[in-house]
Every structure is written in C-alpha cells, then in structure tokens.
Amino acid sequence: MPEVFMPRLSDTMEEGVISRWLKKEGDTVHQGDVIGEIDTDKATMDLEVFEDGVLEKLLVPEGTTVAIGEAVAIIGGGSGTGGGEAPGTSTTQSTTAAEAPAAPRESAAPAPSAAPAAPKEPAKPTSGGRVLTSPLARRIAAEHGIDPATLTGTGPGGRIVRADVEAAAAAGEGRTEKTDQGAQAGQPAQPSPTEAPRPAAAPNQTDTGADSVDVPLTQMRKATARRLTESAGAPHFFLTNVVGVDRLFAFRQEVNQRYADSGIKVSVTDLLVRACAVTLHAHPQVNSSWAGDKILQHRRTHIGVAVAIENGLIVPVVRDADAKPLDELAAETRELAEKARAGKLKRDEFRGGTFTISNLGMFGIDNFTAVINPPEAAILAVGAATEEPFVQDGTLQSRRIMKLTMTADHRVLDGATAAAFLRDLKQTLEEPLRILL
Question: Are 121 and 113 a contacting pair, CB within 8 Å?
Fold first, then answer.
C-alpha cells in the first residue's frame, strides 16, 4: 500500500508538524498534488504526492508532530485497501523522504478519524483542559478575534480546524474581547477601535497562575536554539569598524532616482549585500565554512540576510550576489524577505549561504554582535546610521557613520584575515562606485 512519508524539507529539519490537510480521505489525487501543509523549522511548506490514486487514509491528525520518514497518509486504488498492493511496496514519497526512508508500519500510525463527521455537541475536545486546535486555526482565530473555545470542531477527534474558524468568522460567531487565544497563535491581538492595544501573549502559552507562563517551543524556535547552541561552541572573535556613509546614502538616492520608473527601490541592506559580495570575491578565505575536518572555501558567493519573523528568525539567501545587477538583487532581496515573513520560502531559498548579514539599524541599534550562522565562517552585524562630530582640516564638522561588527570563527579565520576583509568592506562602502565594479 503506497504511503506518503514526512519529508526532509530543510537541512536542519528533524520533524515536522502537519498543520493542515488540504485533501480528505476518499479524494482522488494526482502526481504533484499538494495534500497538506507542514510546519518545519524554517517555514510552512507543501506536502506533495508523486503518485496517482485515491487518498485512502490520513494517518495523523492536524497539529501532530511527525518525525522525518514516518508515514502520514496512504494512497491506494480507492478500495480502501490501497489498491491491493502489498504493504511496504510503496514508492510514493514526498520530495526528499527517500533520504530517510521509514520502515513500513503496520499499526504504529494512529488510526485517523475516518471522514470526520462534524460533531454538533457543544462539548469541546480537550487535552488537559486545553481546547484542541490546529496551529493554523489558532492563528486565523487570533486574526479574527475569535475564541476557539466557543467553536465546535469538525477535524479529527473533534479538533478545531481552519474551516471551523473561517466559517465562524464568516458568520460573525465566536468573537470575543478576550485576545489571549489569538495571542496563543503568535499573532498580534486585534484591538477593537475603542479598545487600547494590549500586548500579545506568546504562542500556546499556559497560564498556571504563577509568576510565569509556559510557552511551547515551535519547530523554528527549536531549530534556532539548536543551531545557535552549536555556534556558541565555536571559538570566535569580534572586529568593529566605523564606516562613513554619507556618500553611500547619496549613492543610494541617485540609484533610486534612476530606477524610479521601474519601481525598484534599493535599500541600505541591498547595498550592504552587494558590497559584502564583491568584497568576499576578493577575500575567498572569508567566504568559507567549517566542515569539521576541513574548511570549505566556496567558489560562489551566496549572501544570507537575517529576517525576523513572527515565531523566530530565518535567513533567506541571495545566490551569486556578486554577479547580479543591483536592481535585480534589490528585487530578489525584497521578494525573499516577503516570502520569509509569509512562511513561503522554498527549501533552496534559505539554505546554502556562505556569509550572513544581520541588520538591526532600522530598530535604532547603534552596534551589536551577531551569532555566527553555522557552518559559515563569519557574520556581519550592522547598526544604525547616526551623526557624529569629527574634525577635518582643523574645523569641526559632522558626518553620518555606521558601525559594522564582524563575528568570525577562529577555526577558519585569523584576526588579520578578517581585519583585511573588514577594511576593504569599509572602503567599498565609503567609495560606493566600487559596489558596481
């Protein structure tokens, strides 16, 4: 009987959460159809099938965490027995499930609720007093100011799913001034027009009445914690340089005037991406990664840009950033950032970076140190552009400056090597025409 397995959708993914089923049992599916969505440590991604047939069974309910390689659904011929095929003969896999094939499971998978008939009883499915709700449903409920506890679930086991919330929203049901549940989904509370904004609570928090609340870890937060803990084990050092950016900002203004008709708008981050890329081209030692028993010196330059999103941090990657025209680079950076915030990045869009930039200047942070994104050799932390006085030709003047702090892995880079890169990066930013050369 063909099985669909939980695929590996990122290099760091170890498990995924079935956030939503898009097909139901009995539906006919074809190769390439998306039957569900998976919350990974990076984004919400599609679960595709690669075989035609009938979706015989959904083996796990929405909201379930599943290890890579475990079966999540069964496809058959529509007879309910998988088309007469012997168990374990499946070749149906999601994108990379073949990397970690799971042994056929006879009964390990929990029996899913068959074609869930909507329970009409007011009793709510609970687990330890908590209303069972899929993460997506909670998020949508928060957006509409709906308390899921007021809804009747139609999902497996009576779980409240997206359709329940959307139906309630369309009917104007379940709205409440209480925003705690919305905050559970990690969404900002939506205050009423006459209500003062109140801070959103953390996702799925449990208020025990004590001085603190329990906040379950999302897949992304788990991955962030794991990777940055790995990074902390690397011997690293910091270098800071002060860059005069008056000419850079003037250059940016001139570029944007030139691109005005095309709608392209180049940001300071775009210029930093390009400047780092061309400087890395001249410093291949910095464009390297630590590989345990060797150093990988990359021939191509892929710049990651850290993007803060609702439930964590993700680093979309601009590939071959040293070879792209500035307008193309700016458009791609913006598109990647938007996809990151929407949780729609594809696997190849957030992996394979060779150097990372983290810019907190828009928050008014003067300077900071960033944690290396392993296995990369270095990361650049960018502070805000600020005015400072300085003396030139015996007169007191002012200029705009920006502080750059580079964190370097000492296993890959020595101080002089890193310092030479940062010196040349400063020169590139202070003479911005070099960005285009």
Answer: no
Please calculate the CA angle 357-429-414 and round it to the nearest 5 degrees: 60
Equal fold, 135-166 vs 235-436: no
- The owner of tokens 């959103």 is 200
Cβ–Cβ under 8 Å, residues 79 and 105:
no
What's the pLDDT at 278?
95
pLDDT < 70 stretches in the chain:
1, 10-12, 41-43, 79-137, 139-140, 143, 154-159, 161-163, 166, 170, 172-209
Kindly state the tokens that stand for 260.
């005005």
pLDDT digits (tens, 9 = 90+) for 152-208: 776 555 667 666 776 777 676 665 544 333 333 333 333 333 333 344 444 556 666
Considering 30, 180, 414, 424, which one is annotated as catalytic? Answer: 414
Q: Which residue in the block uniquely carries the two structure tokens 């929407």?
A: 342
CA 179 – CA 318 distance, rounded (Å): 38
Q: What digits encode the pLDDT tens for the residues 351-371?
A: 899 999 999 999 999 999 999
pTM: 0.59
For residues 349 and 347, give the distance between their C-alpha atoms in angstroms, rounded to a whole number. Answer: 5
Pick the catalytic residue from 39, 270, 410, 424: 410
> How is the chain split into domains, by residue range?
3-76, 135-166, 235-436
Fold of 235-436: Chloramphenicol Acetyltransferase (3.30.559)
214 CB-contact burial (10 Å; exposed 0-12 / middle 13-18 / buried 19+): exposed
pLDDT at residue 421, as a whole number: 98
DSSP codes, 406-424: EEEETTT--HHHHHHHHHH
Catalytic residue flag (residue 410): yes
Please state the CATH superfamily assignment of the domain spanning residues 135-166 in this structure: E3-binding domain (4.10.320.10)
Confidence at residue 163, expressed as pLDDT on a 0 to 100 scale:
66
Identify the CATH assignment for 3-76 out of 1.20.1250.40, 2.40.50.100, 2.60.40.420, 3.40.50.80. Answer: 2.40.50.100
